[in-house]
Amino acid sequence: MIDLGESELRAAHMVASVLLGYPDDRLYGARQVLAEAVDALPAGEVRDHLSAFLDHAAGTAQADLAAHYVATFDLKRRCCPYLTYYAYGDTRKRGGALLRFKHALRAAGFEVADGELPDHVAVVCELSARGAVREARRLLQEHRAGLELLHTALEDERSPYADVVAAVTATLPPAGPREKEAALRLAAEGPPAEEVGLEPYAVMEASR
């Protein structure tokens, strides 16, 4: 973990949030601003990983990066960017976990866009960038095993997005024995497989 101040953490998470979103005109139009924000970070893992991805984006056509994004995050379940999926899969328990993310976002005055789930890594990073650093890092740390598994899957795919997830992970305290054990267990067993969709989450939200 790099010793970053709160403003530096917010900046790093802001950049990661944009980079982990779909590579549309917003990302490509903001590359210079993002690069300047990264260059202002202290030397170390976070800056190096974010810079590596920005370098890749600078040398890659937007359409090609977009195609890679879809092929990686939308078509490969092992590269799922939704943190609660790793711990709960498509089970009823995932609905309650999603509500915890939703409540953290609402407490910070942050509403996700229609159709987006609140546990997307990019959404949690944006929560930090908006000022709720402690809450965002708590959510990331609670789902550290899933974050580590996502990073491993992206590395196995030789995806440049592995650098962005590595940068996010580097903003957290080092993984302890419990997190490492959980990540190994998830890698061996995979998420729970009860196929019930996210209906419980929708029902609980509708009742609020």
What does this structure look like?
- The protein has 208 residues and is mainly α.
- The chain has a single domain, classed as TorD-like (Orthogonal Bundle).
- The chain has helices at 6-19, 25-29, 31-39, 45-58, 62-74, 83-88, 93-107, 121-129, 133-142, 144-156, 161-170, 177-189, 199-206.
- α1 (6-19) packs antiparallel against α11 and α4 (45-58) runs antiparallel to α11 (161-170).
- It is globular, with a radius of gyration of 16 Å.
- Mean pLDDT is 87; it is low at 195-208.
Number of separate strands: 0
Alpha-carbon Rg, integer: 16 Å
What is the terminal-to-terminal distance?
38 Å
- State the CATH class: Mainly Alpha
Indicate the CATH architecture.
Orthogonal Bundle
Q: TL;DR of this structure?
A:
This protein is mainly alpha-helical and 208 residues long. Helices cover 67% and strands 0% of the residues. The chain is globular, with a radius of gyration of 16 Å.
Question: Which labels suit this protein?
Answer:
mainly alpha, 13 helices
Produce the secondary structure layout:
Blueprint: H1 6-19, H2 25-29, H3 31-39, H4 45-58, H5 62-74, H6 83-88, H7 93-107, H8 121-129, H9 133-142, H10 144-156, H11 161-170, H12 177-189, H13 199-206
Helix pairs in contact: 1-4, 1-8, 1-11, 3-4, 4-11, 7-13, 8-9, 10-11, 10-12
